[in-house]
């Protein structure tokens, strides 16, 4: 029984998902699904905080762990789920998506995410990530009437299964070398080998890192993101960008520190490569995009790179920097996607932002805030996040990588600020958008608040962002 | 000493005003709220001038609070004799900007004044910051409001100018971010005072890199030759208020950075880069002056003259002589007054004629005697006429230059001569001669609001010309300390 108590947040989410599916026929036309999802997310977040007060624990034979690290990400996942559910309403109406199933999938995907961040063993980690991704495949393709949506889902599914295979291959090789899949046991088995001596092990680590890099859309395993984001509805794209990335980073952080810590030098080179490539490729390809969601996909690829800068150091401090980055990134990206989703069809095209500042000055101002944060301009959370990850890269001695990262943030300023130029310096071409529903305002307000507080008080997260 | 934290209040009052305007203000009310805010900012900053101790070189009105305990970064504010004049200038120019925009800005009034006020917060905060982190935050905070001011309310080429401004300044400042992080990594602090003490832990070789990183940021802002190319676009396309802030304060931020960061902390780096810096400064003076001579657009002409004038400033700073540095800071202040005044003057006639081509002007004196007299005062000041403010600053800088290298002094004098030529020629073409046909019938004379906007600057130009010692007395102690701390030319 006490083992199950470690999974209270997961159980809440899974329970709500099952309840929604059972009641699906009755609640299809009502807001019950949204309310239920948001309540379940809040309950899960509270439960995550509550169980943390018991202190660090492990259960299920050491497979599931409960520590500050896992609970931090569980709260973040719950927040992502709640905010995504809140601004989904408009896109659901437009495409006649079955609400109960949609929300049940969001809930189940989040359950997988939570399982992944709390696992202390490669197998439950794989299990959690697969649950997350399987639900995301369906979510991407849930707008069945649209060919683009179907195409995106298929692409995502094919590449995703390939990445899962890579991950499980890495896991099996690790098992072959060490005879275990438990993180602590892997670490102690590896400490007996000489560093870098076992080629098979390096291949295994590379494969695991590759499989996880897919989840965070780091180059060269990023190809799915632009298509999937473009084909999916804006809320689903936001869910992928925020949730999938946070979880991938969490898993990467734990695997690097807890399991493969002894191969830190090899890992650091791999991660630095992933980070550098993601930042450069993401920033440069984003320049030529004309579709807002595609633009944000490439932006999310670049941000995956920035977040990885923290892990390059291979220290607990670096991992906390990545946690900070993931946290703030989730809110600024949800805010941006919130605006995109609320504008409907208009929000999908870059040209749709023309003259928005004249028609909706408040929304344009919020969008500007999120864009500043994505660029990393103070006083926003994006700057605080960038500061800590670059600091940790510099501390690890990767000076050139740090310079490359900031140079690319100038490139990224160009495309983020292009949206600002369209909003502020062009006249409107389309009629003013309809009034936003209150739920969307709630999402934007929460995201803006976190973005601002994170920028004005960058240390506020330090207490919770503790590495494993 | 005072009942409230003066620097924090002065810095963030405009920000509060901006928030009020955005949240509650109607278009009509926005102007009044903005004016009241800027005046209140000047009022709350009064204790700074009243209680300031000129004899001390230390930071005064120091405020320090925990900010990011995990990184040991504090929220620290403080002013010395070098930064105080610029806080005054920033708060004064903000009031005048509102005066200058009162009738011109008719579209999206609320956002305009909000952007202006946020820019004021950034300007004052930058000069009040007592650690590098806060300095950087205000440095970057400046970016977006100015970007919007140029891009939304500017002239025909505004979008290009705004984006160019943003990309240029951001390219410099991200390198400053890396430099800041590298300093933090070595010294474990970002407080200016602590860094000046801890600088020995920065290896000479490392200092060279750091100096280059900060130079990238400062040189773009100053702007130094050859990264000045954003400036003519930005100054020309910006609305009058934007040009005033750009020329009056933003350009000084770069020079202030040299004084606050490079010289006290990176002394080895400074010594290493000394010759190139002096050469670039001298080149900027002469090149800037020649390019100014051939301009046909009044605003562009004044913009290019800034390149030349800021060349004097960096030349003075890198002479590393007491008189040179004092002259440079005085000249920063003077240029803030004069270029702001000239942009205001141009803006005022532009509102009536809607052209900035010099060719379209002529004989303005016939219908606008008051305007012409004020413009004459500012043009003479810009040319460095004795009795007006620029003369003293240029004199001190040239003195410092001659002490360093004779050829630098010669270049500087050459620059002064060219400067007199372009500005007097401009005055001649615009104000004297026969009245151009296009101007006949226009009401060119200034109204009371416009005279009131220019009057404080005219007073300052005259007063500092007659009694420069008032400002120099603020600079003496901090500059002596700056140069006494071990940087030798």
Structure description:
The complex is a heterodimer of chains A (468) and B (489). Chain A is mainly α and 468 residues long. Helix content of chain A is 76%, strand content 1%. Chain A is built from 22 helices and two strands. Chain A has helices at 2-5, 8-22, 24-27, 32-52, 68-86, 89-95, 99-118, 122-140, 147-178, 183-190, 199-215, 224-231, 234-259, 264-286, 292-312, 316-342, 345-348, 356-359, 361-375, 381-395, 399-425, 438-456, and strands at 57-59, 64-66. In chain A, strands 1-2 form a two-stranded antiparallel ribbon. The longest helix of chain A is centred in the middle third of the chain and has 32 residues, at 147-178. The model of chain B has no long low-confidence stretch (mean pLDDT 90). Chain B has 21 helices and two strands. Helix content of chain B is 75%, strand content 3%. Chain B has one domain. Chain B starts with 5 loop residues before the first helix and ends in a 5-residue tail after the last helix. A two-stranded antiparallel ribbon of chain B has the order 1-2. The interface between A and B is large, with 35 and 36 residues.
Low-confidence stretches of chain B: none
Order of helices and strands of chain B: HHHEEHHHHHHHHHHHHHHHHHH
Which class best fits the helix and strand makeup of chain B? mainly alpha
Q: Give the strand tally of chain B.
A: 2
- The count of β-strands of chain A is 2
3D shape of chain A: globular
Strand order of the largest sheet of chain B: 1-2
